[in-house]
Structures are given as C-alpha cells and as structure tokens.
Amino acid sequence: MTGHSLSLSVADLVLASIALSMAAASLGAVLTSVSLVTALSAGSLPATGSIGYALFYDPPVPDGAG
C-alpha cells in the first residue's frame, strides 16, 4: 500500500459524524446517570443535523453531473 494516500469524502465524514454522535451518546449514558433513551435522543440531534446537511445543503451529485 505504498504510494496510496487516505482521502475522505464529505459523505464519509457525514457517516462518521452520525456514528460518532450516537457512540458518544451511548458512552455518556454508560458513564453518567442519564438513561439510555435520553442520551440517544440527545445524540440523535447532531446526527439528524448531519443527515440534513448531506441531503439539503451538500446533496450527492451523480458522476459527471457537477
């Protein structure tokens, strides 16, 4: 794998931010007295924002169309 560079697209970063916000919420529920339902509800807010960004602000464009 020499000579290959790691590059992340915007879609990769959006997917990572969704997973990270939900994982952080789960970890917060485990480490504190907050219930899992409350923590995941709070963690879903930034995840929803990431999805909204990907769909409406920077939507996917087919190859060759943009």
Strand content: under 5%
Q: What level of helicity do the residues show?
A: 55-70%
The main pleated sheet reads as:
none
Class per helix and strand makeup: mainly alpha
Number of E-state strands: 0
Q: How many DSSP H or I helices?
A: 2
- Provide the succession of SSEs: HH
- C-alpha end-to-end distance: 31 Å
Residue windows where pLDDT falls under 50 for at least 5 positions: none
Describe this protein's structure.
- The structure is a single chain.
- Helix 1 runs antiparallel to helix 2 (36-57).
- This protein is mostly helical and 66 residues long.
- Helix content is 67%, strand content 0%.
- The chain has a domain at 33-58.
- The model has no long low-confidence stretch (mean pLDDT 87).
- The protein is built from 2 helices and no strands.
- The longest helix has 22 residues, at 10-31.
SSE layout and pairings?
Layout: H1 10-31, H2 36-57
Offer a concise description of the structure:
It contains 2 helices and no strands. By secondary structure, it is mostly helical.
Output the keywords.
66 residues, mainly alpha, 2 helices, flat
